[in-house]
Fold this protein.
Amino acid sequence: MDRGGDRAQRLEAGVRVRDAATVLHLDADAFFAAVEQRDKPSLRGRPVLVGGVGGRGVVSTASYEARRDGARSAMPMARARRLSPAAAVLVPRFAAYSAYSQVIMGVLRELTPAVEPLSIDEAFADLALAPDGVPEPEEAAAWLQARVAELTGLTVSVGVARSKLVAKIASDLRKPGGVVVVRPEDEDDVLLPLDVRTVPGVGPATQGALERLGVRTVADLRRQPLDTLTMTLGEAHGTGLYLMSRGLDDRPVVTSTERKSAGAERTFATDLRGRDVVLAAVDDVVDEALQRLERHGGAARTVVAKVRYADFSTVTRSVTFPHPTASDADLRDAARRAVLAAGVVEPVRLLGVAFHALSAHAQLALDLDAHLFDAPRRAVVAEHDHVSGRLAVVDAPEVDAAPDVADSTTGTTADDGGTDPVTDPDLPDVTALDAADAADAGSATAVVGRPLGPSSVGRPLDEANARPGLDVEHATLGRGWVVHVRGREATVRFETATTAPARSRVLDLDADPLVLVEPVGVTPPSAVPAELRPA
């Protein structure tokens, strides 16, 4: 009796997939870079790299112009700059991206109230719950793209299918600005020829294991028996890939806005060595993670620590409490113990801390007796070894996509020793800063996401707080953005989404002070003077 075959049949029969293509996946194209090009007219049509400007920075987003040069997200910024030497290198401006994201998500909700944001630039939507009846997928996608372009000037790619899995894969097939509708009867034609790496959860480690089975395409994956996959990849991961290779995914579109995690991480300019040095660095990361936790519930039940070593291998450890806690001391202690559980025996390149199972309500513990009421020491420590960049068991790209853990780094010097990567004097002269770049972290480190410490908005621009791409304002010249600052000399382009492209201007900060300001927000194309709109 083929027990494995019977088990597989029962597994497949237990998945209730929709019978029509009503799950839509929207993905904004090269989102961070596209927003920068939208807000900075001189960068339109030019290669742009958004991410860390330091020698250890990582590319969060590469514009399509930079991608033609070979630059990619998750690539070390130093390598991306060598591949695309004329690219403008900018630090992320999360306030700007959030403003654009809110408009895009609002457009989706005009289509249907059932919207599930996945990240700042992508979301699922359930067309079956549209208030005026189920629209035709092609018509819904076309309306969505036109409306987003009307309000933001950005392009989005759209996939529509009967499941989240296939809709997400479809939205990536014709980027940028593509629409792919996969009806149930066409799923095999679309899925089977694809490289197995297009399946969610197949990263470098899983790909290597599958290649040893002779699996290179989705069709190859589908031919593998369930028992083979679970023995090779583990029960959960093997079962998941077995179902996904068949397009079997019955997950609903979940409209809950409850945040699942909050965290922070830091990539270091110099690898950390030694237990005490690592623990001191953990405390700095926990400080930032606690600030985000306070904004999103204040209590957590699970603390996950991520340690990435110099060889880019990554280990995560988690500590789970019996009840959610809002105690800074307990959460900090759990983070330290989780990092130590990872076995800090090699040079450490990156540390991350994320709080999961968030709650607005914490179990209050009276400190009656430390040895009787010591929740952290009673917590459960879980282990996951992998070579990914996510706080999860499955494989993933180098750059994190976990909720509230930002995608890029800032700080430290450029790989070319501070020379400008731009040869054309009329191209944006956007470079990494000198050693003062590390000032935002309080030490010679590169920081993932928003810099630790207070915001610089409202402060006079100087060499210590300058970052390429940040918004500034002059008393008479108006708004612009930082190209670079050296000493008391600032290079700025005074332009916005409603102006013509501007050339760089050099100002003496003593004579012409500049103030760091928040991004202006979303400017619809209709607000741009007619003579400046693209033909």
Notes: The longest strand covers residues 261-272.
